[in-house]
Amino acid sequence: MENKLGKINDNANNTLNNLDILDGQMAFFGHLIEDMNQYPEVSAHMVKHGEVQKQLNAIFNLFHYQLEEIAEYQETISKLSTREGNNEQQND
């Protein structure tokens, strides 16, 4: 039982860590938008040369990766919290 609770706790902590990373990525995204609004001429130049697209693609990929990891942690927590998790625990 303690092992199962430990695994749930580990996955919950990993989820929180990923949410912290997402929060940082949202701040970066917010700064990008603020910069684009504050400096439209520079932003137009950056768009023309693909720099904004690269930054947006990087943000998207990081979001996607973090959200995939969170989904895996949630699935693990769900399994550990249900009968399936109880059955697996008995087999350990």
Please outline the helices and strands:
Elements: H1 2-38, H2 40-48, H3 51-81, H4 83-91
Helix pairs in contact: 1-2, 1-3, 3-4
Report on the architecture of this protein.
This protein is mainly alpha-helical. The chain is built from four helices and no strands. The protein has helices at 2-38, 40-48, 51-81, 83-91. Helix 1 packs across helix 2 (40-48), helix 1 (2-38) runs antiparallel to helix 3 and helix 3 packs across helix 4. The chain is rod-shaped and about 60 Å long.
Q: List the secondary-structure elements in sequence, H or E.
A: HHHH
Strand content: under 5%
User: What low-confidence regions span 5 or more consecutive residues with pLDDT below 50?
Assistant: none
In terms of quaternary structure, the protein is: single chain
Class by SSE composition: mainly alpha
Q: Please, what is the average pLDDT?
A: 90
Residues in helices, as a percent range: over 70%
Shape annotation: rod-shaped
| Distance N to C terminus | 11 Å
Name the descriptors.
93% helix; 4 helices; single chain; 92 residues; mainly alpha
Outline:
By secondary structure, the protein is mainly alpha-helical.
